[in-house]
Amino acid sequence: MDLMDAIKGRRSIRKYKPDPVSEETLQKIMEAVRWSPSWANTQCWEVIIVKDPNIKSVLANTLTKTNPSLSSMTEAPIVLVLCGRKGVSGFKKGEATTVKGDWLMFDTGIAMQNLCLTAHALGLGTVVVGNFDHKKVEEILGVPQNAEVVAMTPLGYPAAEGSAPKRKEPSEFVFYEKYLGNK
Ligand SMILES: Cc1cc2nc3c(=O)[nH]c(=O)nc-3n(C[C@H](O)[C@H](O)[C@H](O)COP(=O)(O)O)c2cc1C
Predict the structure, then answer these.
(1) What would the pLDDT profile of 156-169 be if each residue is shown by its tens digit?
(2) Whole-angstrom distance, CA of residue 18 vs CA of residue 29
(3) Which helix (H) or strand (E) holds 45?
């Protein structure tokens, strides 16, 4: 698939078929995560693959009832939970290198985009889910203190395509030479 087609064609998928995803396909997606860029190649990401319907259901309960992805958490055959190791990305000898502190959100964000684009190129759907009770998910999955859960995504074959929400025009966010947005 052409890169621009993949970038533009990927949609948040919230309706899934129950069809299973092969281990081979899953490994291709993990390979895409593996090759994500990261701060000093620190690779702080970790992925928990959840297939157990009971665990998926408990995870779904951490979303608010109004989250549009609620049903997709149990409908899709797999939920991927993206975690990050704390104090690694953006750190040197235990000290934060920049005012931004931990770059964990940034690096796991890139990894998630690689994951979603690769899934899309393989005919699979994803939707980044960020609005849920992170502390509860960490408890459920036994995530230790030195790591945190960042986002989840259902993974499976789309039962319905998503429609593309409108995007800003480049002229609204691209500036030449200096910042020209609203101050
Ligand atoms: C960090 C992040 C968190 C998100 N959280 C949720 C969520 O909790 N529930 C949901 O249904 N969609 C969530 N989304 C999906 C966005 O709503 C979606 O990407 C956006 O509307 C653009 O649509 P598209 O992905 O089809 O291009 C999230 C996306 C991102 C990047």
Answers:
(1) 999 998 899 999 99
(2) 19
(3) strand 45-50
Among 7, 81, 128, name the best residue to mutate to test ligand 1's pocket (greatest count of ligand atoms within 8 A of Cβ): 128
Q: Is 131 in the pocket of ligand 1 (CB under 6 A)?
A: yes
* 8 A C-beta contact, residue 154 and residue 18: no
Q: Is the CB of 69 under 6 A from ligand 1?
A: yes
Work out which ligand 1 atom sits closest to the CA atom of 162.
26
* CA-closest candidate to residue 58, choices 125, 149, 136: 136
pLDDT per residue as tens digits for the range 69-91: 999 999 999 999 999 999 999 99
Q: Does 161 sit in the ligand 1 pocket, CB within 6 Å?
A: no
**What is the CB neighbour count within 10 angstroms for residue 50?**
20
Helix, strand, coil share of the chain (percent; to 5): 35, 20, 45
- 3-state DSSP assignment of residue 156: strand
